[in-house]
Amino acid sequence: KQEVTQIPAALSVPEGENLVLNCSFTDSAIYNLQWFRQDPGKGLTSLLLIQSSQREQTSGRLNASLDKSSGRSTLYIAASQPGDSATYLCAVRRWGTSYGKLTFGQGTILTVHP
Amino acid sequence: DAGITQSPRHKVTETGTPVTLRCHQTENHRYMYWYRQDPGHGLRLIHYSYGVKDTDKGEVSDGYSVSRSKTEDFLLTLESATSSQTSVYFCAISESWEASEQYFGPGTRLTVT
Q1: B interface mutation test: which of A34, A99, A104, A106 has the most B CBs within 10 A?
Q2: pLDDT tens digit sequence for B6-64
Q3: Do B107 and A91 touch (CB under 8 A)?
Q4: Mean per-residue pLDDT for A2-10?
C-alpha cells in the first residue's frame, strides 16, 4: 500500500526566504506526482505535475523535483511572499491504476510572515 | 481555473436522512472523482467515474453511492447520513488517465448532527 509523508508538518518563515517542502512515498512504481496548494476553506489548486520520466518541473518561483529511486520529491519556493501562505499537498499515482487514483500526503502548512 | 462547481457548498443535516451532493463540470473531461477530506486522514477517494454510467468504488465507499447520467454531472448520495460522514467533500476531474492532472472543485462542507 502506497504511503505518502510530508515533512515538515508546519513551517513558518520570514518573507523573502527560499524554502523546501518535502514529500516521500513508499512505493517507487509511480506514474506521476502532483503538488497542490490549498487555502483555508478552499479547494485544491494544482501547482505542478511531474511525470515519472521527468526529474523536475518549474512554474514561476516554484520548482518541483522527483527522485523515484529514493521515493522523494521536493517543492522549492523561491523568494517566498505572504501570499504563499497555504497548505501544500503532494499526491502520487501508482502504475496500474487506470482510473487515476491519487494517494495524498497530510500536507505542510506554510506561513510566510512579513 | 477549471470549470468545476459543487452544490450545495454547505449543508447541515440530521442522522438518517438522505443527502445528495452535486458536481458539475464544463470541461467535458471523462474522469470524475469524489474525495473526502478529514483531519488526520487527508484526502481519500470515495468513488470515481470513467464515463457516463461507468462508476466504481474507491477506498472509502461504504455508505455512499454515485451516479453519472451525463458527462458534466457526477452525483454523490449518502443514503442514510451518519455523524462519521461529517466531512468536506471534493469533486475532481481529469481529461484522461494518461494526462491525469486532476483539478478540484471548491468543496462541500457537510455536517451531520
Answers
A1: A99
A2: 999 999 999 999 999 999 999 999 999 999 999 888 899 999 999 999 999 998 999 99
A3: no
A4: 93
Query: What is d(CA B97, CA B49) in angstroms, rounded to the nearest whole number?
Result: 12
Strands B108-112 and B10-13, sheet pairing = parallel
DSSP code string of B48-88: EEEETTEEEE-TT-TTEEEEEEETTEEEEEESS--GGG-EE
Query: How confident is the model over B97-111, as pLDDT tens digits?
Result: 766 789 999 999 999
Mutation target for A interface from B6, B104, B108, B109: give the one with most A CBs within 10 A.
B104
Give the whole-angstrom CA distance, residue B103 versus residue B66.
19
Helix (H) or strand (E) holding B13: strand B10-13
Q: How far apart are the first and last CA of chain A?
A: 41
Residues 6+ apart with CB under 8 A from B67: B55, B74, B75, B77
pLDDT of residue A98: 56
Do B44 and B36 form a contact (C-beta atoms < 8 A)? yes
Residue of B31, B51, B39 lying closest to B91 (CA atoms): B31
Supply A77's cell numbers.
Answer: 519556493
